Amino acid sequence: MSTVAPAAVPTRRAPARGSRALLLALGLLAAGALLVLAVGLSVAVGARSVPLGDVWSALLHPDGSYTSTVVASRVPRTQLGVLVGAALAVAGVVIQGLTRNPLGDPGLLGVNAGASASVVLTISLLGPAAGRSVWAAIPGALVAAVAVYLVGSGGRRATPVRLVLAGAAVSAVLVALVEAVSLTQPLVFDSYRVWVVGSLAGRPPELVGRILPFVLAGLVLCALLARPLNALALGDESATSLGLHAGRTRLLGGAAATVLCAAAVAAVGPIAFVGLAVPHVVRSFTGSDHRWLLPYCALLGPVLLLASDVVGRVVARPGELMVGAVTAFVGAPFLVAAVRRGRVAL
Fold first, then answer.
1. In the 3-class helix/strand/coil scheme, how is 133-165 assigned residue by residue?
2. How many whole angstroms separate alpha carbon 166 and alpha carbon 110?
3. Which tens digit of pLDDT belongs to each residue from 32-59?
4. pLDDT at 13 over 60
């Protein structure tokens, strides 16, 4: 006489799932604490550093003193770093999910170059003020994304390496267009040369309010797509069998990623590797569940960007190194590691 205890398996698995969810939730709190620390350092560190205790006092009780003025001048820069870091990291993880491409990144896939070209053409036609609008960057980002996908697929399956190569080709064409326009028009070149490296410095404080609605809308839409992105990771046929409309998910996800990238590029210029490095780090301990990937990236993207900005201020003091250059140094090893890991194939 044999006995079977089918209930024993779920009983053992449920606590494991619960404990993992608890650990990931605690990890989110830790990521939030890191973000608070990065925000504090961003406000405190500069050509003249301010103790963190004085930063807190200046924020709560501004008195018009020199320290209070310095802290107030750094707050918009820090706010901009939080928005741009979150936008780039979340856009990166969504692009990777939509294309099932571990090398998916707004910079590698030509989206940043498309937004840059659109901004430069807008400056050329309508002036520098018009070029700071997010609407100036959206058309180029969208056209570049579509062009990379069409070139990378070429009637066949769009593998990660093909998409990266297509992104490089499209980016080269767009960069050539940008340089041709900027070098022949001095007014455009003056605006372009301080913007192209990617920097949080020297941006007008009102820029935060201009891009905030776009970033929030993009982040909310990406959060709503967390479950569809999980289903899409199983393949189009499996996702369809689960009731998912794959085409609609790609359309909405692509629109959200485009808006996020366009807002970031219009605000601070093209910043590379944030959208590649942060999702790779997060995925190493959360797995591929976008319900965890997206909030972690929204918190750790600003941490990377603000930390890079602080490093740029420290290593070149009393001047500073542009944050786009620092993120390139930090993010490039992640691209090498992703390729050497053997997860991408022609």
1. CHHHHHHHHHHHHHHHHHHHHCCCCCCHHHHHH
2. 8
3. 999 999 999 999 887 777 887 778 888 7
4. no
Q: How far apart are CA 266 and CA 146, in angstroms?
A: 19
**Can you give the CATH number for the domain in which 306 is found?**
1.10.3470.10
8 A C-beta contact, residue 301 and residue 248: no
Considering its fold, how many domains does the chain have in total?
1
Asked, for residue 193, whether it belongs to a domain, the answer is yes
Is residue 14 assigned to a domain? no
Across the range 115-123, mean pLDDT stands at 88
More confident: 60 or 220: 220
Cβ atoms 113, 270 nearer than 8 A: yes
Is residue 18 assigned to a domain? no
Contacts for 229-238 with beta carbons within 8 Å, 24 or more apart? Answer: 229/94, 229/97, 229/98, 229/253, 229/290, 230/288, 230/289, 230/290, 230/291, 232/97, 232/98, 232/100, 233/97, 233/100, 233/288
Q: Does residue 30 form part of some domain?
A: no
Buried b (16+ CB within 10 A) or exposed e, 243-271: ebebeebbebbbbbbbbbbbbbbbbbbbb
